[in-house]
## 1
Amino acid sequence: MLNEKVAKILYRIADYLEMEDNFFRVKAYHNAAHSVETLTKDIESIKEEGKLEEIPGVGKGIAEKIEEILDTGTTQDYEKLKKKYPVRFEELSSVEGIGPKTIKLLYKELGIRNLDDLEYQARENNIKKIKGMGEKKEKSFLENIEFARKFTSRSILGEVLPLAEEIKSRLIDLPQTDRVEIAGSIRRWKETVGDIDILVISEQPVEVMDYFVSMDIVGEIIVKGPAKSTVRLKKGIECDIRVFDEEVFGAALMYFTGSRELNVQMRKLSISQGLKLNEYGLFKKEKKVAGKTEKEIFQALKLDYIPPELRENRGELEAAKKREIPSLVKLEDIKGDLHLHSTWSDGTTSIANMVDQALKQGYQYVAFTEHTGSLKIANGMNEDRILKQVKAIDKINDDLQGFTILKGLEVNIDLEGKLDIRDEILEDMDLVLAAIHSGLSKGTIEMTQRIIEAMENEHVDIIAHPTGRKLQLRKEYDLNLNQIFEAAQETGTLLEVNSNPIRLDLRDLNIRRAIEHGCKLVLNTDAHSAIELNNIRYGVGTARRGWAQNKDIANTLPLKDFLKVLKN
Ligand code: DGT
Ligand code: CA
Ligand code: CA
């Protein structure tokens, strides 16, 4: 709907004008935006009839701006303001208590551009130091950020990565490209992403850009130039592409992989060694010392190579200086998936087809863990059907060589922390997952106690999706995670990293905390169809962001050793 698009730009201009203290025009733009937004008639046809000035609140000046938007997709003034204040306006203003004036203040004083910056600065207690802010505001920002995140325009990695890979493969197929890489937050496997960043090596950038902006998946061209272009894809997300020479590509890749916070620290470190780092290389005076590859830049700075997933300024630079960057878990290290559903409960694929997929992924084992009795909506199985499935799996196993299907269950933890299947049945299963599926909003003490109680059951091997969050849909349960981690470690219960890109639960920081507590983890997909077994890569990316190594992850072990890690 064009009306909405025009209204949005007018609103945004009003916001910028407010940052500029131009209150009279703020009001004018605001009124015009509101009129356009609530028009029932299509604005394009009003323009064609030459009647834009008849819209309430739209005078000659704003009518001209609307024409400019309809003709070019933007206005020159708007573009200038965007450059002047390169902040994620929508993101920041979605935090309660933050308007244009505060955004300007936060940007000027602390360079805050987005929610991540805001959260960082608030946690560092830098906001209360700004004149006019104070401790109370800082605290309330922190409280409201979580809520605001749900309503921001960030997309889920699981939706964006396939799109980025599609663009990458199309660009690679061009005769003019020598190399194509996905950079930015996607390369870091961040669970949500703001936009897609693609870097290309090519000697014919103009042809590459021509192709890029004319792809059928492009909805709108935002900027087009020989070195950089930005489009909005039809799916809504923006995609940046930048072309570089082979000689500088490592430096460019490092710079545009970020994170911004790490880049700042890397530049500081370079300066302290008498060097200068930017997106074109590492320089000593005017002489380039490195830049063709990331590896040679890290080397020249006397650092371990830092994998992209760690580049968040969370201690990785210090570790790299001490040559203590751990060897992180890799996709090919995963030997099995221990959380699968088939048509026996609420999955859509047969056991045989799921196993085919597991074999394709090079696995040695899987476990089927259907829902149980009390979870009626998920076609939960009663004791009778559980025993039937056990027999069915035994039969399939007889025909498999070098591959084992484990017989498992995903049992429900009730309000008291009890399970909905008798111990006598659980005892005969190879593996038991337990999870909370109801009574999600009890208080911290109760929720924590329910999970600990379940872990104390000698048959429960794994707690599935331990915090219950769903990205942009549902917060984590109120849990005392320290107590959960301690109990998991003491009882030898594995904690799941659920690899469904909506869940990613445990998330990166909690993975790192769990490992510090000495917990063991297991990476599962919770697949309800064969294709979803591929989601394991999101779990691996997240585990790497949590600094996980093979020794932390039970399903990097061959079957025999894996079974030893389970209880009993
Ligand atoms: P996103 O898109 O919000 O999920 O996060 P990123 O990290 O992909 O951020 P983006 O797309 O704005 O920029 C890509 C990378 O480029 C970012 O991680 C660091 C680098 N970068 C871009 N602009 C700047 C800048 O002004 N300063 C610094 N230090 N780095 C920048
Ligand atoms: Ca990005
Ligand atoms: Ca970008």
## 2
Amino acid sequence: MPLVLSDLRADHLENPLALRRVTPRLTWRVRAEGTASAPRAHRIRITAADGAVAHDSGWIDSDATALEAVDFEGAPGSDYRWHLAVRDADGAEVEASAGFGIGLADWDAPWAEPVQERVLAEGPLEIGPEVFAPAADAAPPGERLHPPRHLRQAFNLPAAPVSARLRISSQGVHQPSLNGRPVGDGLLAPGYESYQHEISVMTHDVTSLLREGANVLGVILGDGWYAGRISILGRSAQYGDILRATWRLEVDLPDGSRHVIRPDASVRSSRGPIDWSDIFIGERHDARAEMPGWDEPSADAEASEGWTPCALLPVSVPLVPFVGEPIRRVRELPAQRILTTPAGETVIDFGQVMAGRVRMRVRGERGTVVRLEHAEVIDAEGNFLDNILGVNKDQADEYVLAGRPEGEEWEPLFTFHGFRYVKLIGYPRTPEPEDFTAVVIANDLAQTASFSSSHARLDRLVENTIWSQRSNFLAVPTDCPQRERAGWTGDLQIFAPTAATLMGVAAFLDRWLRNVRVDQDAHGGIVPIIVPMPPAMDDPDRPNAGLGDISDAAGWSDAITIAPWELYRHYGDPRFLRDNLEAMRTWVEHQTAGAAASLPAGLDPASLSPERLARQRLLWNGRMNFGDWLAPSTLDGSRPEAAGLDEFSAIMLAPQLTAELTGPLFQIRSLDLYAASAEALGDAVTAAQAREHAAAVRAAFAAEYVGDDGRIGPDMQGIAVLALAFDAVPDEIRPRAVARLVELVQEAGVHLDTGFVSVPFLLDVLWDEGHADLARALLVQDTAPSWLYEVDHGATTIWEAWNAVHEDGTVERMSMNHYAFGCVVDWMMRRLAGIELLEPGYRRTRIAPDLDGVLDHCQAHVDAPAGRIAVDWARTGAGARLTVEIPLGVIAEVALAPGWTLDGPTELTPGTHTLRAARTEEGSAS
Ligand code: BGC
């Protein structure tokens, strides 16, 4: 039987048009139909557009399914095809091919800057209570915001093209069209990044949109992240207050000639039907002002009033190819029901918390204004409740009807909201559910895992996590899609293992990590707590930027070691380590220097013995950080220190109690991952040095904070979990530290009391230390704080706080869509379903279903780089049956809990295996 080749990818993408790297990593999958005949060798030839061979790897004797053609360098702006041949053990060959393009390294087109009103710079410059309260005196958006501009460039082509590419970028967000038809299906291009350092260029294949003769390129330009209200402050114009666009339309004609169309004196612009648009505030569209045909050759648009020439300006910021999946409409959800609330308001329920916006159909009189307000919850009485308060965080759209007798349809262009419910105001008729569709938007990442079991509520927990990931993998990885939409580095590192399991995040996070490094460089080696770091939070008087005293935060800034490591593990691509190793080094050196330079507040160096001083100088504990952020007992008043605290002080209690410990604990974590990364890249010397340093920090930590009785620092669950997970407890004390952790969990009534940074490790620590039953009990606990409490109280996403909705239905004004606590899904995949990555890229995988646990059956899969790894198991009377699917290129080992035996081999080769397990002892150990 022949081998079958599939999933040919360059830099993790199928047929990318414009890569940033000139030497792409090429990967593929091999499947054997019928009896497997293992691949033995492969050969890759890369051909240029004219067919010339640009690279020939020759036959390589290997069963690998990845190749970096090290001596190939693609030419910027060129297209290539790569031809893969694979030979099997019997010498039979199969072939497949795919394409990739290399993006431009330099940019030679000017900005087109339309005549426009400058964006008003408004909103707070500092974090204070008003950031989370509605601005009482804010003028209506119409008085503060400006209308997006429409740009139009007409040009002639002597013939229809054989091939054409549009490369386009903007300061602001853009929507391109050609001859009245949309270019591509992307939204909010070019996305969000540290614009002061570089801006992405989108590349589109527009061959089929052009024709001989007259053509028109249209571009609509909106504020987006560049000039609109963004991030935690909700402040506008953080990168600039003037919108611009630039493009290169490269047209190859049948006669072999190439025409490049750039912005020139012929570009005209006008305002259009959008009165204002802001990604936070919302958008207002006046259908009476639509300009049919404005981007088509037939229209006499330029003659009409209001179309003015654009200024042409040099582009001074680096423009770089956008590599990855664009933001798209990824789902559509019909309205579930339309409610009239006790307050008499009309509220549409879409049944799911999400990020997106509403497409609405409406028929009514010209000039009628329909307003849509968005929120994630309804309150205990069933009324619409705006759970997101804050300056400029209105989340409201308005549509002014043209009065078309056949009805009209509208979806905003340059905004999105975090919502499930929409309050409808001014709708001219009785609204029907079929007139409202929620359009979910996100970077269009493939879902790469599934989990379906006998436990419906756990299945829902996984679904909720996927929804929170979908809502927050939007331009950059964000904390939440409504209140802040900020690239909080901590949230991402916490969720990284789950993120990389559930979705194809390689290109998305590769792009974001580039921003992390750029922002780190701009902050003297400190990895900011938010990336892109919003300029308004950058204080020129401080070497770093951040929130109050917090700039380089344990568990946030460490994203630079954690995220690349997770990506390497999941995708087996060493470039994640290579690209980031230097940034990791800079970061751990910053921690080392910081440790030596400052001691915890209140610790007087003069009062310390030389030994203690030496130890303290090793520990990165002298700066404020977020600690074990939002640890439940610091918020619900159950800790003595929390008594009588107001809301803000209560939130800062976890940092106060734990920051001194999370600092050195994450210092250890970063040193370990830096060492592991150096080692994986073959640098044993660096690895050994980092390990030695980590050992010294561990010893100092233990001496300073770990009591002989196993109590650590403030004696809280989260700190115990981190200290055990990061191996910061001496072996002889470890059993007592574990016992104390178990006691703390029991004292909390079998509830977790872990905050953001410790929760990912809680269940693993308990499990690995012989308390699997307690880990399972925490997972299925359903009173707050717990994962299933949320599920049972109607969550359709993961909440920011475990009790965001109280037992009596009272709603906290928190985010209902923060993915951080969804990190447990990684654990569920490994420990319950039983698919655990052992070697990078899943090349070695453990299959260890939890046959003694809370599930009767489970079906789950992960799309590993080599192919699908799937389990399907069920308990049967005295035993269990297990079907395992392993792709070529992966070796699996089955590991059942003590007390179980397998009727087949424990090492599984590629293929599908059906196995039986029998219980050999009563009450197996767990
Ligand atoms: C965000 C978090 C973030 C945190 C920093 C919050 O306001 O929503 O998720 O990591 O601030 O502690």
